[in-house]
């Protein structure tokens, strides 16, 4: 009496981790289906030690599927998620395509699992950089309120997929082993696969993630702004982001500045974060303890440290937030949503088909 | 009738670049003296194509020296700079040791060259991360005033010296070529040579530069706060920093948020920065033009881009500031101070010995 769970984009950096997360999940799973594009269809993946062949994603792929986890890019979700819903599946979508749709809950389970009950077949998993910031800030918002957020990110290349990881490693080897000038190595993907120019990331910091919007912020930056307001249900919360890619493979780090509505003592902020599910306080500068990207890899938690008062603003607080962008930032948050849907008995066909087929 | 110029710490990452900057300087130089610790004394360096032997730094090294550029660590400056002054030299010190001394001008020539005339034998060169921020923000401060600064840095390992560069390259090779786990590579220097624990920088981001002060900020962060106020002569300017080391060898990048006193149009801010000496505007997101660390290497300029309004604060502006930390951040700013001292006819023995010998 378990579920049939489909993973769309099963061979990608996030998809492979979704499979690992499903293997160790408490979800009752009878069957898994691994779907991909033509390029990867036919490959063999493993699930709980047994081989599973990757199938081509088609409009007919979702018959009998109860839960479909999508992580194959926005256009794939746009094209196939409505078919999954039509077949009675509940979709957990890890792309940005449906995130701002009014009928789509945008969920970080620790923060707003209560919004799942309003789903119409599709639930969106927020952007990686947003999720970890929500885990760190929600305990602060609940106790003292939030007036504003200014965040500068230090994002890993794996957020741009396995090909960006490969590109980064190749570029670094060309510089380190072959003596190439970092300016002359060939870049094909970063900073944004869909943009015109590509720049090396080896020994560089690229202040562009995703393409630019018409207000001179990138889509990545605007995702942090819009998704934060939707998840926290705080339309008036001030949020501005600067999103930067650095030569790190896994785990995003964030320098986060907030102003609270009520004045908060730092010791109390630390205690609130430490008590919040999914958050781990790593903050003891006398012992040089603070979150580090390499230490967060493989963990589903969000690590928070360097919590300290702004030197001038009465209610200003700075902190350093680190999490594995492929796990809590994507695969784990998606599977966690699926678990929460199951717990709330919400894995069921929706009555109305709110999402039109193209 | 030219100067005798000594470089203390001549074999270091900054010292070698000071020598290159002196070679192309307009200063009238008759003779150079390259000084170092015991470890490097006797080595041969080149100056304008001729070999120069590196000498051990002693209390007697400065006889006949007109200008002494120090970049061998705070303790070396503390010990030997007063002897240089006693011998009639003017010291340009690239360490933090004298920066907050009331008799020591702290100088970014484009910003406050007028303070040089008050020197008493020692002029301090600010911290690398401060200097480039000053070049970017001084044109804004002059036209609209500054209320506050929040900065998150993306700093290159070369700021911690040649040994940190070597450590970073070794760690990256161990991970990339030998398949080492980034968590298990041996670290001996970063995040701070003088601190107890050392962490890998390969594929990591370390939210610690220098050791921690008693307010939970690091010394590096407090340098940005204190030096900004002194250089800009704005004791009430609000400045809070988060200083982070990333796996980049050369050039610091900074995500800078400011609030101006008067409201400023973004186009006017861009024009003011573009017109400021030492600053280069690289800001055209429609063509993906923004400053990049790898492009700044070898340049004496500070590159500024991603200039945009905060999404909420009326007078809030974000920008991205990049410069070669070893050049404008250290070697070039020091030589530039020396050039400015010459231009203002200030290379001369001081009447009073304000700096006591130990």
Automatic annotation (TrEMBL), chains A, B:
<keyword id="KW-0220">Diaminopimelate biosynthesis</keyword>
<dbReference type="GO" id="GO:0071266">
    <property type="term" value="P:'de novo' L-methionine biosynthetic process"/>
</dbReference>
<keyword id="KW-0457">Lysine biosynthesis</keyword>
<feature type="binding site">
    <location>
        <position position="99"/>
    </location>
    <ligand>
        <name>phosphate</name>
    </ligand>
</feature>
<dbReference type="GO" id="GO:0050661">
    <property type="term" value="F:NADP binding"/>
</dbReference>
<dbReference type="GO" id="GO:0009089">
    <property type="term" value="P:lysine biosynthetic process via diaminopimelate"/>
</dbReference>
<dbReference type="GO" id="GO:0019877">
    <property type="term" value="P:diaminopimelate biosynthetic process"/>
</dbReference>
<dbReference type="InterPro" id="IPR012080">
    <property type="entry name" value="Asp_semialdehyde_DH"/>
</dbReference>
<dbReference type="Pfam" id="PF01118">
    <property type="entry name" value="Semialdhyde_dh"/>
</dbReference>
<comment type="function">
    <text>Catalyzes the NADPH-dependent formation of L-aspartate-semialdehyde (L-ASA) by the reductive dephosphorylation of L-aspartyl-4-phosphate.</text>
</comment>
<dbReference type="GO" id="GO:0009097">
    <property type="term" value="P:isoleucine biosynthetic process"/>
</dbReference>
<keyword id="KW-0521">NADP</keyword>
<keyword id="KW-0791">Threonine biosynthesis</keyword>
<comment type="similarity">
    <text>Belongs to the aspartate-semialdehyde dehydrogenase family.</text>
</comment>
<keyword id="KW-0028">Amino-acid biosynthesis</keyword>
<feature type="binding site">
    <location>
        <begin position="158"/>
        <end position="159"/>
    </location>
    <ligand>
        <name>NADP(+)</name>
    </ligand>
</feature>
<dbReference type="InterPro" id="IPR000534">
    <property type="entry name" value="Semialdehyde_DH_NAD-bd"/>
</dbReference>
<feature type="domain" description="Semialdehyde dehydrogenase NAD-binding">
    <location>
        <begin position="4"/>
        <end position="119"/>
    </location>
</feature>
<dbReference type="GO" id="GO:0009088">
    <property type="term" value="P:threonine biosynthetic process"/>
</dbReference>
<feature type="active site" description="Acyl-thioester intermediate">
    <location>
        <position position="128"/>
    </location>
</feature>
<comment type="pathway">
    <text>Amino-acid biosynthesis; L-threonine biosynthesis; L-threonine from L-aspartate: step 2/5.</text>
</comment>
<dbReference type="GO" id="GO:0046983">
    <property type="term" value="F:protein dimerization activity"/>
</dbReference>
<feature type="active site" description="Proton acceptor">
    <location>
        <position position="252"/>
    </location>
</feature>
<feature type="binding site">
    <location>
        <begin position="11"/>
        <end position="14"/>
    </location>
    <ligand>
        <name>NADP(+)</name>
    </ligand>
</feature>
<feature type="binding site">
    <location>
        <begin position="39"/>
        <end position="40"/>
    </location>
    <ligand>
        <name>NADP(+)</name>
    </ligand>
</feature>
<dbReference type="Pfam" id="PF02774">
    <property type="entry name" value="Semialdhyde_dhC"/>
</dbReference>
<dbReference type="InterPro" id="IPR036291">
    <property type="entry name" value="NAD(P)-bd_dom_sf"/>
</dbReference>
<comment type="pathway">
    <text>Amino-acid biosynthesis; L-lysine biosynthesis via DAP pathway; (S)-tetrahydrodipicolinate from L-aspartate: step 2/4.</text>
</comment>
<comment type="subunit">
    <text>Homodimer.</text>
</comment>
<dbReference type="GO" id="GO:0004073">
    <property type="term" value="F:aspartate-semialdehyde dehydrogenase activity"/>
</dbReference>
<feature type="binding site">
    <location>
        <position position="245"/>
    </location>
    <ligand>
        <name>substrate</name>
    </ligand>
</feature>
<dbReference type="GO" id="GO:0051287">
    <property type="term" value="F:NAD binding"/>
</dbReference>
<feature type="binding site">
    <location>
        <position position="325"/>
    </location>
    <ligand>
        <name>NADP(+)</name>
    </ligand>
</feature>
<dbReference type="InterPro" id="IPR000319">
    <property type="entry name" value="Asp-semialdehyde_DH_CS"/>
</dbReference>
<keyword id="KW-0560">Oxidoreductase</keyword>
<keyword id="KW-0486">Methionine biosynthesis</keyword>
<dbReference type="InterPro" id="IPR012280">
    <property type="entry name" value="Semialdhyde_DH_dimer_dom"/>
</dbReference>
<protein>
    <recommendedName>
        <fullName>Aspartate-semialdehyde dehydrogenase</fullName>
        <ecNumber>1.2.1.11</ecNumber>
    </recommendedName>
</protein>
<dbReference type="InterPro" id="IPR005986">
    <property type="entry name" value="Asp_semialdehyde_DH_beta"/>
</dbReference>
<feature type="binding site">
    <location>
        <position position="155"/>
    </location>
    <ligand>
        <name>substrate</name>
    </ligand>
</feature>
């Amino acid at each position: 009496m378990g579920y049939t769970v489909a993973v769309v984009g099963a061979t990608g950096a996030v998809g492979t981790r979704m499979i690992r997360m499903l293997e160790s999940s408490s979800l009752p799973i009878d069957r898994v289906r691994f779907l991909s594009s033509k390029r990867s269809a036919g490959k063999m993946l493993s699930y709980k030690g047994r081989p599973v062949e990757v199938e081509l994603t088609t409009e007919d792929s979702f018959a009998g599927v109860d839960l479909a986890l999508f992580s194959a890019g926005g256009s794939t979700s746009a094209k196939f998620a409505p078919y999954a819903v039509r077949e009675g599946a509940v979709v957990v979508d890890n792309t940005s395509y449906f995130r701002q749709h009014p009928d789509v809950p945008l969920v970080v389970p620790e923060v707003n699992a209560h919004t799942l009950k309003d789903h119409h077949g599709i639930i969106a998993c927020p952007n990686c950089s947003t999720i970890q910031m929500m885990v760190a800030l929600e305990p602060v918002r609940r106790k003292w309120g939030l007036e504003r957020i200014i965040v500068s990110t230090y994002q890993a290349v794996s957020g741009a997929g396995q090909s960006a990881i490969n590109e980064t490693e190749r570029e670094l080897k060309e510089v380190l082993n072959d003596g190439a000038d970092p300016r002359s190595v060939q870049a094909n993907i970063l900073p944004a696969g869909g943009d015109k120019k590509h720049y090396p990331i080896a020994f560089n910091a690229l202040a562009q993630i995703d393409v630019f919007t018409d207000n001179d912020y990138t889509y990545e930056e605007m995702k942090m702004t819009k998704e934060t307001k939707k998840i926290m249900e705080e339309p008036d919360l001030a949020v501005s982001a600067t999103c930067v890619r650095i030569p790190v493979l896994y785990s995003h780090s964030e320098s986060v500045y907030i102003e609270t509505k009520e004045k908060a003592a730092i010791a109390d902020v630390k205690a609130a974060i430490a008590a919040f599910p999914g958050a781990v306080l790593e903050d003891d500068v006398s012992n040089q303890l603070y979150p580090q990207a390499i230490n967060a890899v493989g963990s589903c938690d969000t690590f928070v440290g360097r919590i300290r008062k702004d030197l001038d603003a009465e209610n200003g607080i700075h902190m350093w937030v680190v999490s594995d962008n492929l796990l809590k930032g994507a695969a784990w948050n998606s599977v966690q949503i699926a678990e929460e849907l199951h717990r709330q008995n919400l894995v069921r066909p929706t009555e109305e088909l709110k999402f039109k087929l193209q």
